[in-house]
């Protein structure tokens, strides 16, 4: 991996390079995505089935687009029992963590006859997109469905592209059933996002769409935002490790590569105060590359978006980490909790050398759907909050309103909204 000493130029060039990975930079795909969405909106199932045959080479119709109970039972027969046990343990951890996020309605009454409050209501119907083909991630199924179930969503509609045989991967189906998907449809790509956003004869319109996907899926979600809500427009995966001379270089190298293997656009960055550690990590990366099966993808990722940055101080290292606002941030330093308290921008923070990033991907419980491409500066991980909405509650007695009606009328008239003022005044004329 390239080793650079951190200065203002290095930092600026790094940030500019990382921004090239944003889905917002892939405008050349937008025309094709908008055409697909327009066709699905206009023609419904007809367009959905045509695009499924074109892109997934699977022939589907209204009679077989929905996954049946028999297909789910077959999936259970095909899944390794040990994997099923692991899925159930991970799901338990995820549910337990997200249960602590649950919000409740509240009401505050006062003796003067006022009552204010907030009513929390789960979304009625949510669509969960799950990638297919080469990308089979049952862990993402759990992470997207579990918080929706904890929130109390009434109906969870999952879509995932079929194989050429018209079937869905067994691991995906089992994870969906365990997590609590209410219905599963064989549909993928921008056409599936269009079906969830607009509704077709087979697939109902949802209130919100969540879940990862390729660039076509990301741009489709961006395009339908407003018709429905979405979780985020996700970019490629990324990891940043802050380390000092106490870190284990082999651990650091392994953790960097755990994200670089996702795809060629993934980013893996080490920021360290130790030049000797930087050199050791670079050597360990080379050793791992000799034995890892996905070495070609990893190498391209590291060549484009992999960095080892040597900082003069821990404060400087923390500063660049906050600038990058990485999806995953590991802290492997002598005083990791001190460093953690100074981190403002990160999707998920992993503390200590035994909190390896894949722990969060699969098992610990916090959600692995995280903000990417610097959006951790203002976005949060997927949570129960994403599956609820809040309504304000206001109730006043006559006496309570009479005590303040003149102030309200004066405020409204100051804005030139005389009908607003009149709405209050008529009650005391």
Structure characterization notes:
With 429 residues, this protein is an alpha/beta fold. The protein has helices spanning 8-19, 30-43, 45-56, 69-78, 81-99, 138-151, 170-179, 189-198, 215-224, 249-260, 275-289, 295-305, 314-324, 336-341, 357-362, 398-402, 405-414, 418-425; strands at 3-5, 106-109, 114-122, 125-129, 155-160, 183-186, 208-210, 229-230, 238-243, 267-272, 306-310, 328-332, 348-351, 388-396. The strands form three sheets. A six-stranded parallel β-sheet has the order 1-11-10-9-12-13, sandwiched between helices. Strands 6-5-4-7-8 form a five-stranded parallel β-sheet, sandwiched between helices. Strands 2-3-14 form a three-stranded antiparallel β-sheet. Helix 9 (215-224) links the parallel strand 7 (208-210) and strand 8. The mean pLDDT is 94.
Topology, pairings included?
Layout: E1 3-5, H1 8-19, H2 30-43, H3 45-56, H4 69-78, H5 81-99, E2 106-109, E3 114-122, E4 125-129, H6 138-151, E5 155-160, H7 170-179, E6 183-186, H8 189-198, E7 208-210, H9 215-224, E8 229-230, E9 238-243, H10 249-260, E10 267-272, H11 275-289, H12 295-305, E11 306-310, H13 314-324, E12 328-332, H14 336-341, E13 348-351, H15 357-362, E14 388-396, H16 398-402, H17 405-414, H18 418-425
Parallel strand pairs: 1-11, 4-5, 4-7, 5-6, 7-8, 9-10, 9-12, 10-11, 12-13
Antiparallel strand pairs: 2-3, 3-14
């Amino acid at each position: 991996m390239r080793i650079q000493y951190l200065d203002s130029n290095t930092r600026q060039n790094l940030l500019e390079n990382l921004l090239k990975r944003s889905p917002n930079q892939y405008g050349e795909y937008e025309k094709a995505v908008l055409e697909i969405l327009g066709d699905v909106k206009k023609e419904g199932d007809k367009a959905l089935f045509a695009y499924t045959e074109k892109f997934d080479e699977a022939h589907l119709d209204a009679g077989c687009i929905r996954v049946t109970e028999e297909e789910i039972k077959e999936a259970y027969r095909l899944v390794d029992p040990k994997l099923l046990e692991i899925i159930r343990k991970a799901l338990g951890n995820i549910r337990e963590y997200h249960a602590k996020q649950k919000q409740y309605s509240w009401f505050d009454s006062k003796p003067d006859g006022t009552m204010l409050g907030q009513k929390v209501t789960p979304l009625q119907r949510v669509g969960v997109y799950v990638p297919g083909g080469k990308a089979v991630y049952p862990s993402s199924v759990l992470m997207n469905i579990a918080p929706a179930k904890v929130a109390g969503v009434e109906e969870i509609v999952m879509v995932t592209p079929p194989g050429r045989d018209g079937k869905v991967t067994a691991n995906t189906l089992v994870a969906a059933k365990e997590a609590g998907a209410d219905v599963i449809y064989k549909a993928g790509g921008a056409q599936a996002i269009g079906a969830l956003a607009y509704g077709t004869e087979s697939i109902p319109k949802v209130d919100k769409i969540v879940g990862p996907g390729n660039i076509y899926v990301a741009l489709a979600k961006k395009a339908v935002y407003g018709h429905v809500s979405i979780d985020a427009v996700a970019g490629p995966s990324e990891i940043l490790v802050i380390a000092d001379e106490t870190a284990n270089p082999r651990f650091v190298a392994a953790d960097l590569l755990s994200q670089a293997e996702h795809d060629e656009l993934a980013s893996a960055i080490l920021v360290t105060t130790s030049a000797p550690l930087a050199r050791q990590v670079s050597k360990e990366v080379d050793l791992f590359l000799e034995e890892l099966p996905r070495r070609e993808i990893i190498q391209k990722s590291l060549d484009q978006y992999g960095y080892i940055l040597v900082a003069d101080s821990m404060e400087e290292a923390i500063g660049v980490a906050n600038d990058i606002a990485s999806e995953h941030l590991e802290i492997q330093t002598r005083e990791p909790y001190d460093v953690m308290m100074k981190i403002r921008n990160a999707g998920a923070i992993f503390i200590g050398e035994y909190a390896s990033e894949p722990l969060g991907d699969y098992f610990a419980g916090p959600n692995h759907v995280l903000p990417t491409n610097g959006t951790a500066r203002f976005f949060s991980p997927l949570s129960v909050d994403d599956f609820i909405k809040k309504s304000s509650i206001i109730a006043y007695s006559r006496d309570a309103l009479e005590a303040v009606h003149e102030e309200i009328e004066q405020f409204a008239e100051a804005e030139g909204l005389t009908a607003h003022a009149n709405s209050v005044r008529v009650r005391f004329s």
